[in-house]
Structure formats: structure tokens, C-alpha cells
Amino acid sequence: MKNQSFNTAILVDQTPTQAFDAINNVRGWWSEETKGDTDKLGAVFYYHYQDLHSCTFQITELVPGKKVVWHVLHNYFNFVKDQNEWIDTDVVFEITSKGDKTEIHFTHVGLESAHECYDICSNAWGTYVTQSLYDLITKGKGQPNPIEEVVKKAREMSAAL
């Protein structure tokens, strides 16, 4: 059986423009620790989560209300041997109207089941897209990873109690 790239989809009542705007608000649904522009064609942005994962993306396609593509330039996981699994892959959001609803089809092109990170990464993408991005689009608030300084201070405060 041929390996297929990870994909998932969500259906929302909001417009394609609202979905597009939410996707580009990466800090609102994926991670507050993201640095750089996430809504400009050609822009490079950086994602970081603790000492587990960091990556660099370039926005290679940005079609308002229709499509967003991020190309992975660099990636690091602290839990896999092959650090190249994500490099030169593409994260694709395709937005289409389905009657009076909007469908967001997410594909991480190149993230395949044979990859060492597949189980963890597909589970994470699934959660971020089907829950956090969905909530940002439908409720105006997602559940992104918080900025590490906030997490660190909260841990220090709770340890002191």
C-alpha cells in the first residue's frame, strides 16, 4: 500500500474569508511562541515548543479565502532519529464552500505513516486543526500552546505554593 500524507478536514458555518483569516492567525490556534509574519506571501516564520519541536516555514502560497501553503525549511524534533522527516514537506490548507458552510481541508504533504514521527505528529495536527483551529474559527478563541515564559512562571508559582 502506498504511503499517503496526513490529512483531515473540518466544516464550519463561517465564510471562507473568516476561515482564511483564522488559519493565518497561527498564534491564535497553534502556538503563541510563533515568531515572524504568518500572513504574507514569501514570509518566513518560526515555531518553537519547549525543547521538543522547532521548525521554520516559508509561506509559498496565499490565496485569500482559498488556500494557504507553508513549506518546511528546517525542522527539529527531540524524539526522532531522522531529523529530515519534515524538511521539504508542505503544510496545505484548502478552503472550499460546501453549500452554506466552509470546509477546510488540511494536508501535511510528505508526513507519511512510515515516518517515525507520524503517530505523534498526526495526532497533534489532528488536535490543532479539528479542535483549536475549529474553535478559533467558530468561537473566536483557539487553544494554542502558550508562550513558554508564561508556562515557566505558572509552574514556578504553583511549586512555591
Explain briefly what this protein structure is.
This protein has 161 residues and is an alpha+beta fold.
Description:
With about 160 residues, the chain is of the alpha+beta class. It is built from four helices and six strands, in the order E-H-H-E-E-E-E-E-H-H. A six-stranded antiparallel sheet has the order 1-6-5-4-3-2. The radius of gyration is 16 Å and the shape is globular. Helix content is about 30%, strand content about 35%. A hairpin with a 3-residue loop joins strand 2 (about 45-50) and strand 3. The N and C termini lie far apart (about 55 Å). The protein has a single domain, classed as 2-Layer Sandwich (Alpha-D-Glucose-1,6-Bisphosphate, Chain A, domain 4). The protein has helices at about 15-25, 25-30, 120-140, 150-160; strands at about 5-10, 45-50, 55-65, 65-75, 90-100, 100-110.
CATH class: Alpha Beta
Q: Low-confidence spans: pLDDT under 50, at least 5 residues? A: none
CATH topology: Alpha-D-Glucose-1,6-Bisphosphate, Chain A, domain 4
Helix content: 25-40%
Superfamily (CATH H level) name: START domain
Q: Could you tell me the mean pLDDT?
A: 91
User: What's the arrangement of strands in the largest beta sheet?
Assistant: 1-6-5-4-3-2
- Taking all Cα atoms into account, the compactness measure Rg is 16 Å
Q: Given the helix and strand composition, which structural class is it?
A: alpha+beta
* CATH-defined architecture: 2-Layer Sandwich
